[in-house]
Write a structure and sequence with these properties.
With 415 residues, the chain is of the alpha+beta class. It folds into two domains: 295 residues, Aminopeptidase, CATH 3.40.630.10; 111 residues, Alpha-Beta Plaits. 30% of the residues lie in helices and 21% in strands. It has ten helices and 16 strands. A seven-stranded mixed sheet has the order 1-2-8-3-9-15-10, sandwiched between helices. A hairpin with a 5-residue loop joins strand 1 and strand 2. It is globular. It starts with 5 loop residues before the first helix and ends with a helix. The structure holds zinc ion.
């Protein structure tokens, strides 16, 4: 394993993780939060400094740049993407990255949360990382390696390629996107602005993982109008919308169809939000399945539960609206597996065993693939995402960087 990039990856990751760039699903604008632009302005400066061309911060908050072709052939244009936002689910302000140099295989403790331990018991992938330099947060925040490790890997590879023009590759387009964690990373203008023939997100976990299957996803809003009246005179008149909302939740299957009771290739229905009062209530659901017929069946099930509860209380008004969110990228990639095969080849050439498991979630690549830019997802090494135990090995990021460099060279030959 080449040590060449370790120091650069470590300092980049620490610099990026210290910047709070959390996204916010409750805000409709793009980007959803102004603070994401703090990351973006830094990346604009850094890209200009390393000599990237066409460096742009778009109106929707993405940073784009070009690495010109050095191959002198008609190689396809390759896109490399990472997202700059961090997950809204956990505290992301005041991140203090800590380097656990040459990890000894034991427990890792956290200065700001003495009750917290990271160990091979609660994070089994750690057991293979002895002597690696492990980066964590300090206990009260997430780290943000998801996906600042992807940013660090792509920036390090880009810096290396621009400094070494004798490395032959086709035209490369870089994109650093906001709002991935809230499912809005791919703005409708991004495919045209990126102008790549195919692309890779660096937003995956274990070394060797190359993902080209994601969930297909729908969202549902259930609205309930009850009958509101003063509780003192409510007998035989009040219809409490909150009672009906909880009835809908409790009628849906709990044992076989929630995220906490499913794994592998099984889909689920999850209630993510419940608001309201006696007069009106609203439920938000996410529906997930790897296959479209399975997804449609989950939508039909939710609809039929709403219909049943409606029938039980005709004085209420219950509506159920289901909207598509993203689709399994396999539907498009299996028609042309070139980007996946190229990634497998690159992994093998740097001595890895490629592994492709379905992602129980989506990436920017799901939407981008659907919009015509095939986009598998590549590992960076990140682990235990969206919480205080989040960690990454510098040496894993180094392998991801080697992978990135191998990919661009193989794609450059592919004319
Ligand atoms: Zn991510």
């Amino acid at each position: 394993m080449s040590e060449a990039f370790n120091k650069e990856l470590e300092t980049r990751l620490i610099r990026y993780c210290k910047i709070d760039s959390q996204s916010d699903a409750s805000v409709a604008s793009s980007p959803s939060t102004e603070i994401q632009l703090d990351m973006q302005r830094l990346l604009v400066d850094e890209l200009k400094e390393i000599g990237a061309q066409d460096v742009t911060l778009t109106a929707y908050g993405a940073v784009l740049a070009t690495l010109p072709s050095t191959a002198g052939n008609k190689a396809p244009t390759l896109g490399l993407l990472a997202h700059v936002d961090t997950a809204p689910q956990f505290n992301a302000s005041g991140v203090k990255p800590v380097v656990h140099r040459s990890y000894n295989g034991g427990d890792i403790t956290f200065a700001d949360a003495p009750e917290l331990t990271l160990s091979p018991e609660n994070s089994p992938y750690l057991s293979g990382k002895q002597n690696h330099d492990i980066i964590t947060a300090s206990g009260t925040t997430l780290l943000g390696a998801d996906d600042k490790s992807g940013v660090a890997v792509i920036m390090t590879a880009a810096r290396h390629l621009l400094a070494n023009p004798e490395i032959k590759h086709g035209k490369i387009r870089l994109a650093f996107t906001p709002d991935e964690e809230i499912g809005r990373g791919v703005h409708p203008d991004l495919p045209k602005d990126l102008a790549a023939d195919f692309a890779y997100t660096f937003d995956g976990g274990k070394v060797g993982e190359i993902e080209y299957e994601s969930f297909s996803a729908d969202g549902a809003k259930v609205t309930i109008e009850g009958v509101s009246i003063h509780p003192g005179t409510a007998k035989d008149t009040m219809v409490n919308a909150l009672h009906l909302a909880s009835k809908i939740i409790m009628t849906l299957p709990h044992v076989s169809m929630t995220p906490d009771t499913t794994s592998g290739r099984d889909g689920f229905i999850m209630v993510t939000d419940m608001t309201g009062n006696a007069a009106t209530a609203e439920l938000t659901f996410i529906l997930r399945d790897f296959e479209l017929d399975g997804l449609a069946a989950k939508g039909a099930l939710l609809q039929s539960v709403c219909d049943t509860v409606q029938l039980s209380e005709p004085r209420a008004q219950i509506g159920c609206a289901i909207k598509p969110q993203y689709r399994n990228m396999r539907y498009w990639l299996e028609k042309d597996m070139t980007p996946v095969e190229l990634a497998h080849k690159a992994a093998k050439e740097i001595g890895l065993t490629p592994v492709s498991n379905p992602i129980r979630g989506g990436t920017d690549g799901s939407r981008l693939t659907e919009l015509g830019v095939p986009c598998p997802n590549i590992f960076t090494g990140m682990q235990e995402l969206h919480g205080p135990l989040e960690w990454i090995s510098v040496q894993d990021m180094n392998i991801a960087t080697e992978m990135c460099l191998k990919l661009v060279q193989l794609a450059g030959k592919n004319s």
